[in-house]
C-alpha cells in the first residue's frame, strides 16, 4: 500500500469558531491505482489533499491515527522531510496552472530546477529528462519550448507543462486537485486521457480530487465520496456506480444532466444547501436534505460495510430499492 | 425574418481591436463572424462553444451592449442600437455566470431585486417592495431574505436573486450566460428546474450560452454550435445531438464526459491540423424548425 | 423548493456569529485610536463648558504659572499658564477644536476633490484617465509646505484659508485609491447589470461604485486628517498657520519655544496632545483597514 490515511481530522480556526473541515477521513491508495475523491464545494476534499502534502495553512490543526507513505510515518515527519518528499516522490497538480508556474522563469529553468533540487544531478541530465517528458505529454518541438515563458503558452499547454513538471522526479504518487476544470471540454478530455495513460504506464498512484462525476466514472479505480467533511461512501468504481448505497451518492448521480433524463423535464435535485462545518454536527450530516431521514439519524453514524470493499455512512441503505437513481423531489 | 421572431440577427460580425495606435492600427480579432438567426417566441436557443468561440460576445451583441461591426440586430423589428437601454431592458434581461460578482455586495436583496423598477421610477417604494417580495417568492426564496445581503447567501440562492431581478420588469427574453457553471451539481439542477418552471409560468423565451453540452442538451429546443466566431451547426436539439453533421459538433459531443463507468476517456485524436480543417469545413445551418 | 429556505444557509450562521462578537472588538489599535479620537472630539465639543477659564483672558499675575504637579503649581491653573498668563488647559481644550476642524475640514475638501477625480479616471479610463493621472503626478511634484506657506503669505492666514489650502493639496491619495478601486469595481458584473437595466452613469456611480468605496475612503480620510493636523501645527509653528490669538496647538508650541529651557511644559503639553491625536487617528485608520480587509478563505 502506497499511501494509507486513517482517521484524518483537520480543524481550521475562523472568526466564527473552529471549522471542522475534515472529520475522520480514512482511505488508501496502492501503486498503479487511481483514487477519486468526489464531492461538492465545501465538502473538505481539497483540504484533505492539502493536508497530505503538508500544505495546510499554519493555523490549521491536523491529526490522524495513521498516515503513512510507502511505510514511512508522515505524522511525525519534520517540515524538511515533507519538503524532500513533496515534488519528489509525491507530486501535485493544481487546478490553475499559473499558480504552479513562475511567470518570471523559462519553462526549462523551472523543469530542471525541480529535478536538481531533489536529485543533485547535472543540468544536462535534467534538461534531457525535461525534453523527454514534454514530448511524453504531447508538446511538439519540446527542446525549443524550454526557452519559453509560461505566458507564451495556452492554458491547455501550460497544464501539460505542469504535468511534465510533476513527473520530473519519477514520483510514486500524484495528487491532482481539479486539474482540468479550468480548461475547455475538448482539452480536458485530451489531458485526462494523457494523465490516465501516463499513470498506468508508469505505475503511479493517483489521487484525483474533483466534483465531476462524469470524469470520475471514466478514470477512477476506487471512489471516495465526501459530504460536509466526512467520507460518506467508499467503494470500487464499478461497484459505486452500479450499486450506490448512500442517499447522497444516489441523489448526486441522479442530478447530473444526462441524455437518459427526459428532455426539458425537471431533473431530480437535492433540496437545501451544504451545512456549515463551524459547529460540530451530531448524527448524519446529510439528514436535513435526505428524503429518508428519521429520528434514528440523529446519532453519530459509522461507516458500515454494505458490500465487498464497499462502505457507506448510512443506516438506511437496506431500506431502499437498489439502483434508484433519484430521491423524492 | 419570421413573424414570431423577438430578436433577429442578420450577418452580425464583430471585430475587436483595430483601434488607432501610434504605430498605425492594432490588429483586429474577429470574435463573431457573419452570424444570422432569429430567436422566436417560446424558443430555448442554446449557444454552445468553447472559450474564445465568441459566444459571450454574441450574447452581449444580442443584448445591445456591444454594437456589431457589421450586420444588424432587430428587436421586435427595430434596430436594437437605436433603442434606449430601458426600452431594451423591458424586453430582454440577462443572467450572469457568476452570482458572486453580479450582485452588489452593499445592497440588500430587496434593493437588488427592486432596482430595475427604481430606475424606471414608475412605482413608489412600497409598491416596489411588494413586487420584489412577490418575485422572491416566485423564485423560491422566502421573504426572510428580503433584508439579507448577498454575502449571507449560498451560490444557488444568489442565482435565484439574480433571476428575480431579471424577471421583475416582466421581460420576454432571458439571455443566460453559463447560468449554472459556477454552481455545484446538486444546486445546478435546482436552478435549471426553476428556469423551466418560470418559462411555463411567464411564457419566457431563453437564450442559453454554455460550454456544457449535457446542460444544453437537456434544456434547449434549438442549438447553435459556435467555433472560432462562426456558427458551424444550427438546428433543433434533437438533430444536433442525434445526428451531428459538423466535425466540430461531433468533437464536442465526443469530449463530453457523461457518467459512464468503465468507458474510459475517449481518444479525440485531433491535432492542430484537424482543428484547422474544421474551421474550413462548410457549416450546417438550418433556419427552419 | 421550500426546503431551501427552511434550512439555514451556512454563510448566514457565520454572519450571525460575527454579529454576536463584532470583529472590531478584538482589535486593540482600533479601540485605542477610537478612544483617543472620541476624547478629543468631546474635549472640542464641550470646551466652553469644561474649560475653567476664558482661553483668551490674560492674567499677568499668573504668567508662567507651572502646572499643578510642578513646584509652585496650583489647581487654579491645572496645566499652568503661558507667557501672557492665559490658562493652558483652557487653551488646550479650545485648541482641540481647531485641530479637529482643520483635520476633518481638510479631509472633506480633499476627499471630494480626490474622489471625483479618482472615480472619473477609473470609470471612464482612456483620455480622462490620462488627464487625471497628469494632474495627480503634477500634484505629487508640489512641495506641500512651501506652497501652503506661499498661499498663506499671499492671502493672509485664517482658519478657512489654511483648511482650503491643505484640502487643495492633499487630495492625491484619495484620487489614487479611488481610481484603483473604481477600475476594479467597474469590471464587476453588478456594474454591467445596472447598465443593462438602463442606469445612467451618475446612478451607477452613486449606487454601485460609491457605496463599495466607502471603506477605503474612510481609511484614507483618517490618514489625511492626521497629516492635515500635523501640517497645520507646522504652519502655525512657522507663524503662517491660523492667526494668533487662536489657541492652535502648533501656535502654542511656537509661542512656548522662547521659554523652552525654563518652562518646558509650554512645549511638551501641546506637543503630547498633538502626538496623541495624530497617533489615535492613524491607529483608527489602520484598524479600519485591518477589519474591512476580507480574510482569505483559509
Key words describing this protein structure:
heterotrimer; A: 329 residues; alpha/beta; Rossmann fold; eight-stranded mixed β-sheet; globular; B: alpha/beta; seven-stranded mixed β-sheet; four-stranded antiparallel β-sheet; 10 helices; 36% helix; transmembrane helix (chain C); ABC transporter permease (chain C)
Protein model, in words:
The complex is a heterotrimer of chains A (329), B (289) and C (298). With 329 residues, chain A is α/β, with parallel strands linked by helices. Helices cover 31% and strands 22% of the residues of chain A. In chain A, the strands form 2 sheets. Chain A has an 8-stranded mixed β-sheet with strand order 7-8-9-3-10-11-13-12, sandwiched between helices. In chain A, strands 1, 2, 4, 5 and 6 form a 5-stranded antiparallel β-sheet that branches. In chain A, helix 5 (123-136) packs across helix 7 (155-167) and helix 7 (155-167) packs parallel to helix 8. The longest helix of chain A is centred in the middle third of the chain and has 18 residues, at 185-202. By secondary structure, chain B is α/β, with parallel strands linked by helices. Chain B has a single domain, classed as Rossmann fold. Helix content of chain C is 70%, strand content 0%. In chain C, helix 3 (28-45) crosses helix 5, helix 7 (144-155) runs antiparallel to helix 8 (159-169) and helix 11 packs parallel to helix 12. Chain C is elongated. Chains in contact: A-B, A-C, B-C. The A-B interface holds A 40-41, 184-186, 188-190, 192-193, 196, 211-215, 217-219, 237-238, 240-242, 251-253, 255-259, 261, 263-271, 273-274 and B 44, 50-51, 154, 156-157, 184-190, 192-193, 196-197, 211-215, 217-219, 221, 237, 241, 251-252, 254-268, 270. Chain A: Keywords: ATP-binding, Cell membrane, Membrane, Nucleotide-binding, Transport.
Amino acid at each position: 500500500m502506497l499511501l494509507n490515511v486513517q482517521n484524518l481530522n483537520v480543524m481550521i480556526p475562523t472568526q466564527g469558531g473552529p471549522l471542522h473541515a475534515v472529520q475522520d477521513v480514512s482511505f488508501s491508495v496502492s501503486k498503479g491505482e487511481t483514487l477519486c475523491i468526489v464531492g461538492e464545494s465545501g465538502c473538505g476534499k481539497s483540504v484533505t489533499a492539502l493536508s497530505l502534502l503538508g500544505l495546510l495553512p499554519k493555523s490549521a490543526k491536523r491529526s490522524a491515527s495513521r498516515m503513512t507513505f510507502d511505510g514511512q510515518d508522515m505524522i511525525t515527519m519534520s517540515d524538511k522531510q515533507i519538503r524532500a518528499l513533496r515534488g519528489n516522490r509525491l507530486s501535485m497538480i493544481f487546478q490553475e496552472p499559473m499558480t504552479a508556474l513562475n511567470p518570471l522563469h523559462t519553462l526549462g529553468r523551472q523543469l530542471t530546477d525541480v529535478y536538481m533540487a531533489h536529485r543533485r544531478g547535472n543540468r544536462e541530465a535534467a534538461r534531457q529528462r525535461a525534453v523527454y517528458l514534454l514530448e511524453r505529454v504531447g508538446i511538439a518541438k519540446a527542446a525549443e519550448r524550454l526557452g519559453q515563458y509560461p505566458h507564451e503558452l495556452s492554458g491547455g499547454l501550460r497544464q501539460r507543462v505542469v504535468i511534465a513538471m510533476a513527473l520530473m522526479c519519477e514520483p510514486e504518487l500524484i495528487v491532482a486537485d481539479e486539474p482540468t476544470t479550468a480548461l475547455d471540454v475538448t482539452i480536458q478530455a485530451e489531458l485526462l486521457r494523457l494523465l490516465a495513460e501516463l499513470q498506468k504506464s508508469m505505475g503511479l498512484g493517483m489521487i484525483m480530487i474533483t466534483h465531476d462525476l462524469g470524469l470520475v466514472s471514466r478514470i477512477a479505480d476506487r471512489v471516495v465520496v465526501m459530504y460536509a467533511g466526512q467520507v460518506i461512501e467508499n467503494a470500487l468504481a464499478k461497484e459505486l456506480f452500479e450499486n450506490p448505497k448512500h442517499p447522497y451518492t444516489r441523489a448526486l448521480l441522479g442530478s447530473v444532466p444526462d441524455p437518459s433524463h427526459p428532455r426539458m423535464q425537471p431533473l431530480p435535485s437535492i433540496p437545501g444547501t451544504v451545512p456549515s462545518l463551524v459547529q460540530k454536527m451530531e448524527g448524519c450530516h446529510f439528514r436535513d436534505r435526505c428524503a429518508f431521514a428519521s429520528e434514528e439519524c440523529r446519532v453519530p453514524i459509522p461507516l458500515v460495510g454494505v458490500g465487498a470493499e464497499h462502505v457507506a455512512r448510512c443506516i438506511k441503505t437496506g431500506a431502499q430499492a437498489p439502483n434508484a437513481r433519484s430521491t423524492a423531489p | 425574418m419570421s413573424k414570431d421572431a423577438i430578436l433577429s440577427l442578420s450577418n452580425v460580425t464583430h471585430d475587436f481591436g483595430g483601434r488607432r495606435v501610434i504605430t498605425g492600427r492594432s490588429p483586429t480579432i474577429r470574435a463573431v463572424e457573419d452570424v444570422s438567426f432569429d430567436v422566436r417566441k417560446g424558443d430555448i436557443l442554446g449557444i454552445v462553444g468553447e472559450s474564445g468561440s465568441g459566444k459571450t460576445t454574441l450574447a452581449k451583441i444580442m443584448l445591445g451592449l456591444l454594437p456589431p461591426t457589421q450586420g444588424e440586430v432587430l428587436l421586435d423589428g427595430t434596430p436594437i442600437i437605436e433603442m434606449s437601454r430601458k426600452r431594451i431592458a423591458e424586453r430582454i434581461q440577462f443572467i450572469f455566470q457568476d452570482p458572486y460578482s453580479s450582485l452588489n455586495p452593499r445592497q440588500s436583496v430587496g434593493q437588488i431585486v427592486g432596482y430595475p423598477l427604481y430606475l424606471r421610477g414608475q412605482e413608489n417604494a412600497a409598491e416596489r417592495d411588494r413586487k420584489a417580495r412577490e418575485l422572491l417568492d416566485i423564485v423560491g426564496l422566502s421573504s426572510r431574505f428580503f433584508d439579507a445581503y448577498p454575502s449571507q447567501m449560498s451560490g444557488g440562492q444568489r442565482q435565484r436573486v439574480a433571476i428575480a431581478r431579471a424577471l421583475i420588469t416582466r421581460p420576454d427574453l432571458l439571455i443566460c450566460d453559463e447560468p449554472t457553471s459556477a454552481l455545484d451539481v446538486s444546486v445546478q439542477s435546482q436552478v435549471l428546474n426553476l428556469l423551466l418552471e418560470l418559462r411555463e409560468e411567464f411564457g419566457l423565451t431563453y437564450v442559453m450560452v454554455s460550454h456544457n453540452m449535457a446542460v444544453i442538451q437537456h434544456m434547449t429546443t434549438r442549438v447553435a454550435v459556435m467555433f472560432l466566431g462562426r456558427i458551424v451547426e444550427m438546428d433543433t436539439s434533437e438533430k444536433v445531438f442525434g445526428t451531428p453533421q459538423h466535425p466540430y459538433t461531433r468533437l464536442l459531443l465526443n469530449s463530453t464526459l457523461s457518467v459512464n463507468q468503465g468507458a474510459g476517456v475517449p481518444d479525440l485524436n485531433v491535432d492542430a491540423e484537424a482543428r484547422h480543417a474544421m474551421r474550413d469545413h462548410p457549416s450546417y445551418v438550418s433556419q427552419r424548425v | 423548493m421550500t426546503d431551501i429556505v427552511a434550512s439555514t444557509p451556512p454563510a448566514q450562521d457565520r454572519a450571525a456569529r460575527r454579529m454576536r462578537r463584532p470583529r472590531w472588538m478584538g482589535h486593540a489599535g482600533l479601540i485605542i485610536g477610537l478612544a483617543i479620537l472620541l476624547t478629543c472630539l468631546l474635549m472640542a465639543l464641550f470646551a466652553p463648558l469644561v474649560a475653567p477659564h476664558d482661553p483668551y483672558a490674560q492674567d499677568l499675575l499668573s504668567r508662567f504659572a507651572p502646572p499643578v504637579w510642578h513646584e509652585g503649581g496650583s489647581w487654579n491653573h491645572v496645566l499652568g499658564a503661558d507667557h501672557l498668563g492665559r490658562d493652558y488647559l483652557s487653551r488646550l481644550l479650545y485648541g482641540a477644536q481647531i485641530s479637529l476642524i482643520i483635520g476633518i475640514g481638510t479631509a472633506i475638501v480633499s476627499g471630494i476633490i480626490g474622489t471625483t477625480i479618482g472615480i472619473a479616471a477609473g470609470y471612464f479610463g482612456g483620455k480622462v484617465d490620462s488627464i487625471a493621472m497628469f494632474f495627480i503626478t503634477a500634484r505629487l511634484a508640489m512641495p506641500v509646505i512651501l506652497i501652503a506657506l506661499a498661499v498663506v503669505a499671499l492671502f493672509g492666514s485664517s482658519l478657512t484659508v489654511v483648511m482650503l489650502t491643505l484640502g487643495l493639496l492633499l487630495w492625491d491619495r484619495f484620487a489614487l485609491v479611488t481610481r484603483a478601486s473604481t477600475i476594479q469595481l467597474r469590471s464587476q458584473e453588478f456594474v454591467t447589470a445596472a447598465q443593462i437595466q438602463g442606469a445612467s452613469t451618475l446612478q451607477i456611480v452613486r449606487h454601485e461604485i460609491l457605496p463599495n468605496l466607502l471603506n477605503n475612503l474612510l481609511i484614507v480620510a483618517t490618514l489625511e486628517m492626521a497629516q492635515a493636523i500635523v501640517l497645520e501645527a507646522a504652519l502655525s509653528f512657522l507663524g503662517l498657520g491660523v492667526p494668533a490669538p487662536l489657541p492652535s496647538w502648533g501656535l502654542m508650541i511656537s509661542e512656548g519655544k522662547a521659554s523652552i529651557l525654563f518652562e518646558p511644559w509650554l512645549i511638551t503639553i501641546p506637543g503630547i496632545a498633538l502626538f496623541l491625536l495624530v497617533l489615535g487617528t492613524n491607529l483608527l485608520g489602520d484598524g479600519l483597514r485591518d477589519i474591512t480587509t476580507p480574510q482569505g478563505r483559509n
